[in-house]
Amino acid sequence: MQGWTATSSGPYAPKPYYLRLTKDRRPDAPTTYSIGDGGPARADQRAVVDPSFLELVRLGIKPANDPTIVNTVAVVDQQLRVQTPQGPLWHRFSFDGYGETRDGSDWDLSEPGSGRTLGRAWPIFAGERGEYELAAGRAQQAAALLRTIAGSANDGGMIAEQVWDGRPPTGDARLGGPLGAGTRSATPLSWSHAQLVRLAWSLQAGAPVEQPRIVACRYVRSDC
Question: What is the pTM of this model?
Answer without folding.
Answer: 0.96
